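Researcher: Please translate sequence to C-alpha cells.
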Amino acid sequence: MNWQHIQTFLWLRSRLRSNQRRRAGAISAVIQNVLVALLIAAAVAMFIAGVAVGFAALPQASAFTLMLVWDGLIVGLLFFWATELLMDLQRSELLSVEKFLHLPVSMSGAFLINYVGSVLTPSIILFAPAMAGLSIGLTASRGPAMLWQFPMLAAFLLLMTAVAYQFRGWLAALMTNKRRRRSVLAFATIGFVLIAQLPGLVAGPRRSYDGEQFRQIVLIANKAIPLGWLPYSVMASAEGSAAPAALSTLGFLLIGAASLRRSYRTTLRLYTGQIGAAKRPAASAVAATRAAPDRRAFLERRIPFLSEHAATVALASFRSFVRAPETKLMLLTPVVLALIFGSMLFAASSYVSPFVRPLQAVGANLMVLISMVGLAGNLFGFDRSGFRTFVLSAAPRKDILMGKNLALAPPAIVLGLIVTLVIQYGGPMRIDHLLATLALTAPMYLVYCLIANLSSIFAPMPVAPGSMKPVGAKGITILLHIIFFFLFPLALAPTLIPLGLEFLFDRLGWLEGLPLFLSMTLVECGLVAYLYPIALGWEGKLLQDREQRILEIVTSRVE
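Model: Translation complete:
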C-alpha cells in the first residue's frame, strides 16, 4: 500500500465518522465531544497521578510493593478491556476489507490500518498514560536501573493490542455462523465473570493467608502468566537485575508479532471465504417445516385472565426474546451480577440486623430489574420493522403494552425469586419477612414496567440486529434514557413502605410480634394490581399518539 492509498483511506474514515455525527444530531455531537474531552482529561490526570505516585510515594517502597502496584494497573486494564469487549462482541474494523478487495490495495495495508485504529480504545487511552507516568516517576526516584521499564512497557502494549485484535478477529470468525453466535455471546460473558471471580471461588470466603504465603502465590502467578512478566521484571530491576526485563521485552515482542501474524492469516481466510462458507444441509428446511406446527401451537395458547390480543403479544414477544442472541445476553446480565455480588451478600448476611436482610433481598431484586433496563426501557427498538404489525393491528394499545410487560415477567420474577432464596440460605430471614419479600416482587415489577413503558414510548432507539448497540440515537434520547434510569429506584422506593413502617413500629415498641411487613405487602399487591391496568390504559393512549413517530425511529436504516 502506497502513501496515496493510506491518505485516501484516512480521508474516507474521517468522512464516515463526520457523516455519522451529523446524522446523530447536534445534541449527540455535543455529548460525544464532552465525553471525548472527559476521556482526554482523565488520561492526563492518570499520567500526572502516575508520575506523582512513582516519584513521591514509591521511592522507598520495597520491590515487592512495586510489583503489586503494576499488578493493580494491569488488572484494571484487563477489566476495562474485557468490559469493552462484552459491550460489542464484534470485530471493530475501521475499514471493512471486504469492500476493498476489488481495488488495487494490499490486504496487509488495510489490515495494518485496522490494527492501528483498534489500538486507541478507552482502556488503552486511560491506562497507557498512567503506566508511562509511573515509569517516569520510578526512573526519576530510583535511578537508571528503572529505564528498562520503557522498552518493556512499549512491548507490553504491543502484546496487549495484538492479542486483543487477534481475539476479536477469532470471535468475528466464529460469529460468521449465526447459530454459533449466541453461544459465543453467552460463554464469553460467563467466562469473563468466572475469571473475575476465580480468586474468591478458589480461596473461599473465610480462607486467609499469611504474608509469606501471599508473597509466594503472587510471585508464582507473575512468573507463570505472561501479563505478570512486566510487574515481576520491574521488581527485579528495582533489586538490580536487568535480565528479567530484557527477557520479558523479547517475549512480549515475539508473542505480539506471532499474534499479529496469526490475526492477519485469520483475516485473510475470513474475507476470502475460507471461514463460514459451508452450505447448510437441505434437511434444515425440512426440520423447520416440521417445527412450524409447534410454533403455531405455542402462539395460539391462551393465558388466563388476559385478552386474546394481550396473550398473543406476550407469547410472541417472549418467543422473540428467548431466541434473539442480543436479548439472551441481556437476560444473562442478572446472572452475571448475581455471581459478582452474590458472594458479598452471602458472606455478610449472617452479621446484619433482621430488618436489613429483607432489604438485601429487595436490593438484589432491584439489581435484577435495573440490569434489564436496556431491554424493558426500549421495548419497540428490538421489534424494528416488526413494530409495523402493531401499528396496523386492531389490538388495543393497552393490550400491546401488557403483552410486552408479561413477556419479560418470567425471567425478571424467576431471577428475583432465585436471588431472594439464595440470600435466605446465606442468612435466614424470619418466615414472615421471607414471604413478604417474595410477594413484593410482583408490585415492584409492575411499577417497574409502568416506568419502562414511558421510556419505550418517549425515547425509542433503533437497535442493530444481533447486538444491544443503539444506532443513530439522538442526544436528547440518550438524555431521556439516563433520566428514566435514575427514576427507576425512585419509583420503586415507595414499595418499601411496609418494611419501613414495621421497622419504625419495632423501634417504638408498638405492635410487637405482628407481621406488619407481610400484611401491608399483601395490601400493596392488591393496590398495585388495581392501579396497574388503569395506568396502562393511559399509557396505551400515549402509545397510540406516538406510534407513527416510534415506527419511523425503530425502522430507520441500521448501519
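Researcher: Any highlights?
Model: Residues 516-554 form the longest helix (39 residues).
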